[in-house]
Amino acid sequence: GQIYLIRAFSRVVKSLPKAKLEVIGDGPDREKLKKEIDRFDLESKIQLLGSQKEVKKIIRDWDLFVLPSLSETFGLVILEAFETGIPVLATSVGGVPEIVKNGETGVLVPSADPERMAKAICALLAEKGERAKLARAAYQILKERFDWSKIIIELEKEYQKLAQ
Questions:
Q1: Kind of pairing between the strands at 46-50 and 21-24
Q2: How far apart are CA 143 and CA 129, in angstroms?
Q3: Beta 88-91 vs 107-109: how paired, if at all?
Q4: DSSP string over the chain
Q5: What is the mean pLDDT of the chain?
Q6: What pLDDT, in 10s, does the model give residues 18-68?
Q7: Which residue, 19, 26, 85, 135, has most beta carbons within 10 Å?
Q8: What is the pLDDT of residue 122?
Q9: Could you read off the pLDDT of 94-143 as tens digits, one per residue?
């Protein structure tokens, strides 16, 4: 869904001309993304960082994390964003709504909808207090629901039930 994020960002920079976008990851669509960046004349605004080993170090400095997926089973990268204290905007696909509660721990938008994504990005970038509130709530949920020590205990209980 990165192509939709680029299209959304072309709208964002009209309202927020100082905004910058970094895209992490690599794949077969890289050339297609470059063409889309060129099409909107966003070469100075968008960086394709490619595959990165230490994602948390990079995103720690961001104001917002956006996951524009068209499909997603769980979205582990969302938990990494929660852990670094970055507010999350994601598309409402697959298992994402199980992690991101719209307006509570992040913001959800429909997939493949650059207009709605752009509006949500602009609203969040304009509201530092709202971003901080979402990030705090997300971090709390991370610690309550996605703490590996708790998950392992729950898995062990389930396996013991099955073994009986």
A1: parallel
A2: 21
A3: parallel
A4: -HHHHHHHHHHHHHH-TT--EEEEB--TTHHHHHHHHHHTT-TTTEEEEE--S-HHHHHTT-S-EEE--S--SS-HHHHHHHHHT--EEEE--TTHHHHPPBTTTBEEE-TT-HHHHHHHHHHHHH-HHHHHHHHHHHHHHHHHH--HHHHHHHHHHHHHHHH-
A5: 94
A6: 999 999 999 999 999 999 999 999 999 999 999 999 998 999 999 999 999
A7: 135
A8: 98
A9: 999 999 999 999 999 999 999 999 999 999 999 999 999 999 999 999 99
Q: Which two tokens stand for residue 155?
A: 């898995």
Q: Which tokens in the block code for residue 6? A: 């680029």
CA distance 5 to 129: 23
